[in-house]
Design brief:
This protein has about 110 residues and is an alpha+beta fold. The chain contains six helices and three strands. It has helices spanning about 5, 25, 30-35, 55-70, 75-80, 85-95; strands spanning about 10-15, 20-25, 45-50. A three-stranded mixed beta sheet has the order 2-1-3.
């Protein structure tokens, strides 16, 4: 993991314009965001990545999930790969009916 990922942030923007600022390393856990991220941009520049098909509610859950599992230390990476990960993941599967049935589930 590059050092810049621990200090840089990116704004993920939901379809309704709501913006969520997350560390670049956390955002890059999403393959979609990874393809849209400009690694050659100036380090001080905060990139905005529009996700027009994602609702604010869904993007909030996604950013919480990505941020929780992002870590820049080897010790924390080992902890994340253990059983608590299953419990944390299960918390994000408990969402209102229809949330994952919408088009949002195919976006990230």
């Amino acid at each position: 993991m590059a050092a810049f990922e621990a200090t840089r942030v990116v704004n993920l923007v939901a379809g309704d314009g709501e913006s969520f600022q997350v560390p670049v390393g956390a955002a890059l856990l999403s393959k979609l965001v990874e393809t849209m991220f400009d690694a050659d941009a100036a380090p001080e520049e905060v990139q905005e990545i529009p996700l027009p098909n994602v609702t604010k509610e869904t993007l909030q859950k996604i950013t919480e999930f990505l941020t929780h599992f992002y870590s820049d230390s080897e010790e924390n990476k080992k902890k994340v790969s253990e059983i608590p990960k299953v419990r944390m993941t299960s918390q994000y599967l408990i969402v209102r009916r229809g949330l994952l049935e919408s088009n949002d589930s195919n976006v990230l």
